[in-house]
Design brief:
With about 270 residues, the chain is an alpha/beta fold. Strands 1, 2, 3, 4, 5, 6, 7, 8, 9 and 10 form a 10-stranded mixed beta sheet that branches.
């Protein structure tokens, strides 16, 4: 009997060894999610030496397209996954909270904008700062490209409720850092970026402003007071399989260790139940 138990234990250990995670993977998507992905992947690979993962910051739209086409097995998204995408198999898992900051060039002398006026600015209905209590100066809109999840979120949160569409008269930036650079260097400009990237605008000489009298703080996002709040997601095609690297990585990001990484990258951990 003792010999049988030893053999069974040895087989269990061997089975566990074969179950260790391994392989090379390419994931991608949201540039907003990218800092969480990069830091999370770095630690995950340290904990799982047999796994090699690359994350390509292509934008939420491109990432989800690649996921559904089978080119990625996991994608990051800073936009809500649409019913159509879910119907094609996309399964989102929320991993963090985020807010979208409204940022302006330093020569724009306003500190607050109503959400309805924000929609009017980004649709091209308001084109001069004097109409918002500022100087007689043309408004220069800095927008994200259409593949951006932040572009989609801003559209859903600001323009759609007002029944408006983005103006075509805008400077287009491919990622949050480019928004920061263009807003800081372009007189009369206004743009938006993930709240974690707003300090980049400030460092470059710009600033963020209030919306409907509310400041863009992490506390206001958690309290659901900030009107431009959203969730960030990791997305798989179909439910992530038990024992898969994708499921293990999602579980890792949702763990206390993973949520500490979320916080360390200046995003907002999910509230604990």
């Amino acid at each position: 009997m003792k010999r049988i138990m030893i053999v069974a234990l040895a087989l269990a250990v061997a089975s566990g060894a074969f179950a260790q995670l391994s392989g090379t993977y390419t994931w991608g998507g949201s540039t907003t999610v990218a800092p969480i992905a990069y830091a999370g992947i770095e630690q995950f690979q340290k904990d799982n030496a047999g796994v090699k993962i690359a994350y390509e910051a292509t934008g939420s739209g491109a990432g989800l397209t690649s996921l559904l086409a089978g080119q990625y097995s996991l994608a990051g998204s800073s936009a809500e996954v649409s019913a159509d995408q879910q119907g094609k198999g996309a399964v989102p898992t929320a991993i963090a909270l985020d807010g979208i900051s409204v940022v302006i060039n330093k020569n724009v002398k306003i500190s607050n904008i109503a959400k309805k006026n924000l929609a009017a600015v980004f649709s091209g209905k308001i084109t001069n700062w004097k109409d918002l209590g500022g100087a007689d100066m043309k408004i220069v809109v800095v927008n994200r490209d259409e593949s951006s999840g932040t572009y989609g979120s801003f559209n859903d949160l600001v323009l759609k409720p007002a029944g408006l569409k983005y103006t075509k008269d805008a400077i287009v930036a491919k990622e949050n850092g480019e928004v920061a650079a263009k807003v800081a260097s372009t007189p009369g400009s206004i743009g938006y970026c993930g709240i974690a990237f707003a300090p980049e605008v400030v460092k470059a000489g710009g600033r963020s402003i209030m919306v409907d009298g509310v400041k863009d703080t992490f506390a206001n996002v958690v309290a659901k007071k900030w009107p431009l709040s959203r969730s960030l997601y990791l997305v798989t095609k179909g439910a992530p399989a038990e024992g898969s690297v994708e499921k293990a990585f999602i579980d890792f990001i949702l763990s206390d260790k993973g949520q500490a990484i979320v916080k360390s990258t200046d995003f907002i951990p999910l509230p604990k139940n």
